[in-house]
Write a structure and sequence with these properties.
Number of domains: 1
Helix content: over 70%
Number of strands: 0
Order of helices and strands: HHHHHHHHHHHH
Largest sheet: none
Number of helices: 12
Distance between the termini: 47 Å
Structural class: mainly alpha
Length: 323
Amino acid sequence: MIFPPVIPPRLAADVPGDRPGGRPGGLSGRPAGGLWWGLAGVAAFSFTVPFTRVAVAGLSPLFIGSGRAVVAAVLAALALTLTRQRFPVGPQWARLAVVAGGIVVGFPLLTSFALTSAPASHGAVVIALLPAATATAAVLRGHERPPRAFWLASAAGAAAAVGFAFARPGGFGQPQWADLLLLGAVAAAAIGYAEGGLLARELGAWQTVSWALVIAAPLMFVLAGVAVAQQPPSGTPAQWAAFAYLGVISMFLGFFAWYRGLAIGPMTRVSQIQLIQPVLSIAWAALLLGEPLTQTTLLGGAAVIACAGLAVRTRLRPPPAQP
């Protein structure tokens, strides 16, 4: 496996805008770069919902949610050791714990349990709401100031994505526990994305997710052990292959691109790329799980992509001058 080049000790080398003479706030002079990195991450994440649905058909949700993090943590520890990365310092540890709680513990576990009863198309609602939630978290945490047009496009995109999932068989329907789990997963991931995007400007993109995985590893090892004791894992080759994807790509390599995109930023714009994720997820669900594609699906997907494009084209207002 080839890992990205080692980030030198000088912070901010991962983000052009943080270099001396760059734009303030870590915004790159080439924002399109952040969008392309974000798109690569979204493409990797788009298989998460259907592959989780495949895996939970034979493996316990606790094992999937914790075991995938264990696999990713082992890879992360190897990457950090082989490249001799410097340790985080001071408050960075607490911030990494926030990232770990959101993307390593909260989102995988909550979605795994939710998808034991919810179909893949239902799970796509999680992805439909994540961009708006991430943008809100970025505004609160990163002090970004998107214009009103951004919020209108973001709200329209979220509404189109939710309506897209509603229109499919097996949508929300009557509120269930799965809905609450999915909403909790949205909140957890949004916080983890926003904090991780900021921290990636200091530690580097892949280093941030790697340290977050290492921090959460003891807890996830314990949970995986409990899951094995309660129900020894036994699945088909397809279910194990889906589990392997969740551990290696969804929990590890996909975040390399995603956090780099968020670090280049602006996070409020890059996060909107995720609006196309439910479209991709349902497309993969049709191919992998045999869920039908209808005209409503195609029209809804076009609307979601259009709103995502409008959101990422809006410009940020400059931050207020610092004394």
